[in-house]
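ok trying this again, last paste got cut off
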Amino acid sequence: MGLQAEVYGGNITCGRVDLQSSVLLSTIPHGGSIKMGNSTTVRPYAQLLAYGGAIVIGDNCSIGNFCVLYGHGGLTIGNEVEIGPGVVIVPSNKKYDDLTVPIMHQGETHTGIILGNNIWIGANVVILDGVVIGDGCVIGAGSVVTKSIPPNSVAYGNPAKVHKKRKGIKEINPLLRREFCHRLLG
């Protein structure tokens, strides 16, 4: 752990992680839990705030500078996930249906957010409650993710939409694959 990382509250479990300077991990004032796997790096000024929910981060992840990850309704992040700087993840929504009560007094809903494995979230992305981002996705910088994204998608925009799918060598046209293999093997 970095010398200046701040940890408040209990129920915080970390494997072998790198908490860099001015990182904040907190389960107070509302409780909750934070759990991080091995080889995860949390960069300077990032905040993980449980707010009564659970934040679970897998192995080999990177949380960028100035990120804010909330746990209200539950946040699960898989393995090998890279989250760029300034990302905000909020597994909570405000209620606002009653016109006779100020919005700030109407409470919240909590569905939760799940990020699969092998994902890259670009800088300054916002991910909102109820979203599931499938394995292998890339989310472009500045996007606002309001709906789930299927595996191996490249999505961006406000709101984020799938613009293409990532393809492996086995999904390439068979003629191109044969040409590639022929050149590779000589």
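PB: full thing came through this time. The helical segments are 174-185.
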